[in-house]
Specification:
The longest helix has 29 residues, at 283-311. By secondary structure, the protein is mainly α. It contains 18 helices and 2 strands. The radius of gyration is 26 Å and the shape is flat.
Length: 317
């Protein structure tokens, strides 16, 4: 009797599940393209990471190449160039986070205070424009502006009686140029999520503040900014995950051997290892370095999420 009841309950649950799937079939059809993209281009390539533990031979393939364990990781850790790469990567990512993360928040806060709707829309649209310019075009503009012979910046320095600077060949200028260009490129687009969050704030809070005599600064600091705290913490944790991921396109377009001292990062090193112009590319070593970077980034995200969970109510997972 008990067995019969259990079978009946299982049958009923299965029927409900099938009925639910049938009623929501269109939603699952919409899900299929995204799911296929995730599997084909995000999850399936992960199996290729096994070459990080092999002495990969292109002719033998993954199944025929010799397993070397952690040798590629040990070789990278013992490389005298390792600390230079790690320092450059952390400094570039750290400066981008330090100077680039607050700019979209500040822009959204101040843009929200603009009362003229036409000026507000025009400013917001204008701020998006750099995001749609490709990295190649941006770097070309940068080269043109900073050219030591005909660049606008060096012409201004000449007018002021100062010596011209070959910015793109000076190691000391690379980090400033990279971070500045990154901020200009993405601050408008990055502010969208904060503007959307501001639009969702209950207007009754502002009306109550008006009755209490609050001015715009008071409302910005005591209503708008606290209302954004959750999304700010979430975005900060997500940015921590990318702290070792710099914009490789920009770096490859901007750097040259004369500024490797400050411009060469882990990703550009991986690129040179995997696509060396001389001899056979060292795919295994490049994969090992890339995997090391991903593991460190994952540890940083988990740590940041744990700290946020401990000291605030906001967390990513």
């Amino acid at each position: 009797m008990e067995l019969k009841q259990t079978q009946q309950v299982t049958y009923t649950a299965r029927s409900r599940l099938l009925k639910h799937l049938w009623n929501t079939k269109l939603l699952y059809v919409l899900l299929l393209p995204g799911l296929a993209h995730l599997v084909l281009f995000k999850l399936a390539p992960l199996f290729g990471l096994v070459i990080a533990f092999q002495d990969y031979n292109t002719f033998l393939g993954i199944s025929g190449s010799e397993w070397v364990g952690l040798d590629n990781f040990i070789t990278f850790a013992k490389d005298p160039y390792f600390l230079v790469l790690l320092k450059n990567t952390l400094l570039l990512a750290g400066y981008s986070l330090l100077f680039g993360f607050p700019i979209p928040i500040l822009f959204a806060l101040f843009l929200n205070e603009v009362r003229n709707a036409l000026v507000k829309r025009f400013t917001q649209s204008l701020s998006f424009f750099p995001y749609f310019i490709s990295s190649a075009v941006m770097v070309s503009i940068l080269y043109t502006l900073l050219s030591p012979q005909t660049g606008l910046v060096n012409r201004l320095l000449d007018v002021l009686g100062l010596q011209s600077i070959f910015f793109m060949a000076e190691p000391g200028w690379f980090r400033s140029l990279y971070v500045g260009m990154g901020i200009w490129h993405s601050f408008g687009y990055g502010s969208i999520i904060y503007l959307a969050a501001i639009a969702g704030i209950d207007p009754h809070q502002y009306e109550a503040a008006d009755i209490d005599g609050a001015n715009r600064w008071h409302k910005m600091f005591y209503i708008t900014l606290p209302s954004l705290s959750t999304i700010i913490v979430t975005m900060f944790i997500l940015n921590i995950g990318n702290i070792l991921s710099v914009d490789l396109d920009k770096i490859l377009l901007m750097y040259n051997p004369s500024i490797y001292e400050t411009a060469d990062v882990i990703q550009s090193f991986v690129y040179r290892q995997a696509f060396a112009s001389q001899g056979f590319p060292n795919y295994s070593f490049g994969a090992a370095v890339g995997l090391f970077q991903s593991v460190v980034a994952m540890v940083l995200v988990v740590s940041a999420n744990s700290i946020s969970k401990k000291y605030s109510e906001t967390r990513l997972f």
